[in-house]
Amino acid sequence: MENISLNPVKSKKAYMQIVEGILNSIHENKIEYGDKLYSEPELTKMLNVSRPTLREALRVLEFLGIVTVSPRKGIRINKPDMTDSYMPLIYMLMFEKTTELELFELRRAIQIAMAEAAARNRSEEDLHVLEEIIKNHKEHINEDYEIFARLDYDFHQQVVKCSGNDMCFKLMETLNILMKKQMVETIYNLPVEDRKLTVNLHERVYESIRDQKPEQARENMQEHMERPYRFYKNKSK
Questions:
Q1: Which of 95, 152, 179, 235 has the most crowded Cβ, counting Cβ within 10 A?
Q2: Which residues contact 191 (CB under 8 A, 6 or more apart)?
Q3: How many angstroms separate the CA atoms of 4 and 190, rounded?
Q4: Does residue 1 lie in a domain region?
């Protein structure tokens, strides 16, 4: 971090320029994950801003999960693996009143693509976890709909985990507040006798991932997502 240079800022929204400057420095590898930044007095002098402006920028960066500010340890750049979601995104989706259909279409696109990727990239460890989730689903097929919905959520998250795509996994974790609500609603409207079909489709997705058949995994997941997709399309009319 010895060669890092942050330019002085002159703007009504100076704190945003500070945020963007630090993010650009991270993106351009001028600042590395885990690096300790300059002290507050050094940063205020370097940026030619007041301490309240700098602290406003640091609060935004903390909210985004980019830095950790500690009285004793100073300002440190976080590592991406220290967080498992992109929380600011969920706040914006809730603020914008994202529709149920839009949410499901996003989830559907990710799940279908990640099922295919999972068949190529899954590890034996991740595959074993997926198998255990299906076993639990079978055992709780007649349980309360909220329990069944939670296991349904676990299955879909684990498929993404099997893909090895960390960004998609974090995105799905970020959407979990809205997704879980949607899954509970879907299962609530699903007759108990039809739950066997859900578990059966889960098994087919699992088997195609286990056997490393990407196209089959994609097709099976697409078929699995079709019924709830029709449900939300009809509901949005």
A1: 152
A2: none
A3: 57
A4: no
* 42 domain-assigned: yes
For residue 153, what are the CA distances in angstroms to 62, 133, 170, 202? 29, 10, 14, 11
Q: Are 224 and 186 in contact (CB under 8 A)?
A: no
pLDDT of residue 10: 56
Counting the structural domains of the chain, the total is 2
Indicate the pTM of the whole model: 0.75
Same-domain status, 19 and 131:
no
CATH number, domain with residue 54 = 1.10.10.10
The domain containing residue 166 runs over which residues?
Answer: 86-236
Which value, to the nearest 10 degrees, does the dihedral of the CA atoms of residues 70, 76, 79, 85 take? 50
Question: 199 falls in which pLDDT band (50, 70, 90)?
Answer: very high
